[in-house]
Amino acid sequence: MQLSFTRSVMTGKSLNGHELSDAVILKQAATGDEQAFGMLYERYVGRIYNYVYYRTGNQYDAEDLTARVFLRAMKHIPNYQDRGIPFSAWLYRIAHNLVANWHRDNSRRQEIALEDTYVSHQGREHPETMLLHNEEQEALLAIIRTLPAERQQLLILKFVEHMSNAEIGQIMGRTEGAIKSLYHRTLLSLRDSMDEKPNGAIHESVNGFQEE
User: Fold this and answer.
1) What is the residue extent of each domain of the chain?
2) Which of 8, 67, 119, 179 has a beta carbon 3.0–4.6 Å from 165's, enabling a disulfide?
3) Share of the chain above pLDDT 90, in %
4) DSSP letter, residue 116
């Protein structure tokens, strides 16, 4: 059984060719199996890095914080309990807490520099949604960064990670309805900010955020 699982971890698939579920890998990782945890790392490191990068705006801090997310997860995974939410939601909560501490320690909010957006990362996809294509989108991102942290988190999870309201709710510890309401209020807040900055291109970008 152990040999069969080891082979499955190495291929990422079960003996019948199906991808191993998180639950199966977690059970083995909780015993201290480094290969199993490595598989979870490979499965989620890109997504966690994307999230941290957009919250910090800095390549080097994002890499450091991403590493700390997985170090913390590895330390606590023996005590991990399935509470009905995906393992990925647990990782995002760890990332959220570390990013919050980072902002508090640095007492600043960094802008994502346009040139940083195109830095390649070996073995990792760079943030899949490039928000800064021109000056109008830079201005939009600057306005988004004036929002409270939870609203920034919501927009990143929705438009960078392309998550549903239900998935976002699992990460943020809220109901799907509460997330939908928060999203509506966030859009209203953005549009109010746009009214103070008459720029047609920015208004068009905000109007592209659809109500749900």
Assistant:
1) 20-128, 133-212
2) 179
3) 42
4) G
